[in-house]
Design brief:
Layout (H helix, E strand, L loop, with lengths): L1 H8 L13 H13 L6 H23 L5 H27 L3 H25 L5 H11 L14 H11 L1
Helix pairs in contact: 2-4, 3-4, 3-5, 4-5, 5-6
Length: 166
């Protein structure tokens, strides 16, 4: 009789998970964005990769030119990490708010800015991309290119100069 009473009084209790609020809601939005994958937002992924690549190339450039400065490194690292975190954390919130198209324009412009920095670092390290390097040097980002114009001379002329001096 006791078991019959226990069966009659048992009810199915469904647990309803409360919707997160406050900071947890913001983290929930960001977590859901990256949980679904970043496949629909490849420009953001490309920017995050280019930022990391720019940090590595900037460090390599300073090391190769023997001009490493810890204050420059800290300043560059802080600005690049801030941009990385702002992009990684704010973009999902902007998409959630319906501002994806406007933020995509910003992401693309930053992708070009960091891309020109990567090209400048590559050029300083001796990797020259003939037409793109020259176009960016002349038209877009002249401040980042510290490379001498002698780097763009024809190699045949360099051989002739060495023959004349001997």
């Amino acid at each position: 009789m006791l078991t019959l009473a226990a069966v009659i009084t048992q009810e199915k209790v469904t647990y309803v998970k409360p919707e997160p609020d406050g900071l947890m809601h913001i983290l929930h939005i960001i977590g859901n964005f990256y949980e679904d994958g970043i496949d629909d937002h490849l420009a953001v992924f490309a920017l995050l990769v280019v930022i990391v690549f720019d940090i590595l190339l900037g460090f390599s450039r300073a090391w190769a030119q023997h001009s490493y400065s810890s204050s420059k490194f800290r300043k560059g690292l802080v600005s690049h990490v801030a941009m990385f975190l702002m992009t990684a954390l704010a973009y999902p919130l902007c998409v959630f708010a319906g501002l994806g198209v406007a933020v995509d324009a910003f992401i693309i412009s930053m992708l070009f800015a960091y891309g020109s920095s990567v090209l400048a670092n590559l050029s300083a390290l001796g990797v020259h991309i003939p037409y793109i390097d020259k176009f960016i040097r002349q038209n877009i980002d002249t401040d980042k290119f510290d490379v001498d114009k002698a780097d763009y001379t024809n190699n045949d002329n360099d051989e002739e100069k060495t023959d004349e001096t001997n």
